[in-house]
Specification:
Length: 213
């Protein structure tokens, strides 16, 4: 801790992180032990967080993350979308295909930003808010590839006809962005993805990741 930081705020944030990492909640005693502070301090922290609906306690006294955290989380999407739009616009215009930023939402892939090219005669209609399983479509598969990657950095993922007949997709995962799991990709009406598209999508994903850091 430095003179410019707040010890109480730091402890409150640590409480939220500890609760977010467990499915079964934590007791005051467990939190006290993990934080290295006495139970009275934990009670005060929980009471404050409960007032803001960031923490709730069940009948057994176990503390869990509250619904207020979800409300805060919803505000992340507009910020991420705004940061990603320049790279998505450049990608859509360069490739001549619909570009998108997709984030994980539970067990699904959720398109949070979509940019269509301005100069093509036709392109795939792909809308923000579109959802699909993570294991179908290039966007979701790229995210799964990043989860499974070890030391070697994942590249890009190509698919055809998994979400829409006649459409092909290419996507690359966002890497190195704390708290954000997603991918950047394009979808086009084609039997296969041109060779240069994959590396271009990787570059766009890197640009978006840099904008979010």
């Amino acid at each position: 801790m430095t003179a410019e930081t707040s010890q109480t705020l730091d402890r409150g944030l640590r409480v939220l992180k500890l609760l977010a990492d467990t499915d079964h909640g934590l007791t005051v005693t467990e939190l006290s032990n993990k934080l290295g502070v006495n139970r009275t301090v934990v009670y005060r922290l929980l009471a404050t967080l409960e007032q803001h609906a960031l923490v709730r306690r069940d009948l057994g006294g176990r503390a869990r993350v509250g619904l207020g955290v979800l409300r805060l989380g919803r505000q992340v999407h507009p910020l991420v979308r705004e940061a990603a739009l320049p790279a998505l616009r450049a990608l859509a215009e360069d490739i001549g295909a619909t570009a998108h930023l997709t984030l994980v939402d539970g067990t699904e892939a959720l398109a949070v930003a979509v940019v269509e090219p301005t100069w093509t005669d036709y392109h795939v209609a792909y809308r923000a808010g579109f959802r699909h399983p993570l294991d179908r479509g290039a966007a979701g598969r790229a995210i799964l590839s990043a989860r499974q990657a070890s030391a070697e950095e994942p590249g890009y993922t190509l698919t055809h006809g998994e979400l829409e007949a006649g459409a092909s997709g290419a996507a690359a995962p966002l890497l190195g962005v704390t708290g954000v799991e997603g991918s950047v990709g394009v979808v086009m009406l084609a039997d296969s993805v041109p060779e240069r598209v994959g590396p271009r999508v990787v570059d766009a994903a890197r640009e978006v990741a840099d904008a979010l850091r």
